[in-house]
Amino acid sequence: MIRFCNLYSGSSGNSTYIEYNNTRILIDAGVSCQKIVKGLAELDVSLDTIDAILITHEHSDHTKGLTTICNKYDIPIYATPKTWAQMSLLKLPEYNHVAFNANEKFEVGDLSVLAFPIPHDAVDPCAFKIFAGDKQISIATDIGHVSEDVYNNLAGSDVLLLESNYDSNTLIYGHYPYFLKKRIASDIGHLSNESASKTIKRLHDETGLNNVILAHLSKENNFPELAYQTVLSEFDNVPNELKISIAARDKIDNVLVI
Length: 258
Ligand SMILES: [Zn+2]
Ligand SMILES: [Zn+2]
What we know:
This protein is of the alpha/beta class.
């Protein structure tokens, strides 16, 4: 059995829980240790039973909780060598460092993991494909645009947690300073509702993807209902089997059991 749950999502912090057989991992730890403990408690999981924390990239909304977690718990932290170099400021104990390279599969307990590079303004950002038995779960946030490489990596996902960061009009006419708008909308910034929706439509049509969680929604430049409707508007007839949900920013989502 796989249990999947998004604990926190958005620029105020990201963390996602995946459990398969006796293996339990977190992707990112971008909120306080206390909030992660609280989130996991709602799933009846204690942080000291987590086998690994996989880090997508060094931005603080993905790494904020790591220092306290490493001070209190003995959990291996996985990141690419370049991301490790960027995270040196966090002063995480050496014995918890585990390095992986993108495009090289590795195992964490019963899970196989493949990280792949994504276009984002961090030093070595990646997304993850997690293989649990015959199921594939993909976690892909902080993506400036969906390149053909990224698309091909997402193909085959049974469950996809995909960034749907901003609505283009809301961003353009919103109150953010120009440089920030430019950064977000750039090819190495964040993914718009429109791009996420087109990606989901294509994955549905070409690969049969039916289970999607829209994630990392901007508080200022998006609305959950708008992100949701943008996906639906891609379809002439929305297929019954297509499940779209929105990752909540600051509360524990429903647990997906597969
Ligand atoms: Zn980022
Ligand atoms: Zn982020």
